[in-house]
Amino acid sequence: MKNVMQRRSLLAFAAAAPIVTALPAAAQQTATSEKVPFVTPELEFVYEAVVDIAEGVDLGAGPVGERRMVPITGGTFEGPKLRGTVLAGGVDRQLVRPDGVRLLDAFYEMQTDDGIYLTVRNRMASVPDRTRFSHLVITAPEGRHSWLNDRVFIGTIGSLRPDRAAVVIRVFTPV
Predict the structure, then answer these.
(1) Nearest residue to 79 (alpha-carbon basis) of 112, 106, 107
(2) How many Å apart are CA 137 and CA 78, to the nearest integer?
(3) Exposure letters 24-52 (e unless 16+ CB within 10 A, then b)
(4) Residue 12 maps to which CATH number?
(5) Do the domain assignments include residue 72?
(6) Taking the model in full, what pTM does it have?
(7) Is residue 32 part of a domain?
């Protein structure tokens, strides 16, 4: 069952990420490929979070763009190895550059169903009309979930508006 879930998750990720799956053959060979084999990472699904958000707050223009803040008001997350709640109190700070690119830097906490607090930092450059990928750093205390401290995480982000003031974040790790 676990392998079926992972395959489904990878297929969903591949459908949402045509940039990753459509690498031309030439991109798989480089000048150093003979000495260091070219390896395309495989990804494992970690969790999906539905993160509830409040209306954004305009912080005014800065020297490189419009500054915004989007409060995180709660949510849930679930994956094969962990599940729980997204805690209220986090924030997604955004910089909207004159070229339309949004730089996002979210910082928030999640609590697993076994009572462990995880700290998440999720950063992304949102380019108009492109699939949005993020880089996450997840910090956990020593113990059952400490494996999260030693991984690289990649996320996809999508909006649930207008049905719900929330975003869906799907998190993956290379295996």
Answers:
(1) 112
(2) 17
(3) eeeeeeeeeeeeeeeeeeebbbbbbbbbb
(4) 2.40.160.20
(5) yes
(6) 0.81
(7) no
Write down the pLDDT at residue 34: 86
- Answer for the pair 40, 171: CB distance below 8 angstroms, yes or no: no
Identity of residue 121: R
CA distance 20 to 49: 22
Taking residues 5-20, what's their average pLDDT?
40
Token duo for residue 66: 């419009």
pLDDT in tens, 46-77: 999 999 999 999 999 999 999 999 999 999 99
Boundaries of domain holding 166: 2-21+41-174
Amino acid (1-letter code) at residue 66: E
Closest CA to 94 of 130, 59, 51, 131: 59
Q: What are phi and psi of 49, to 5 degrees?
A: -115, 135
The per-residue pLDDT for 27 is 58
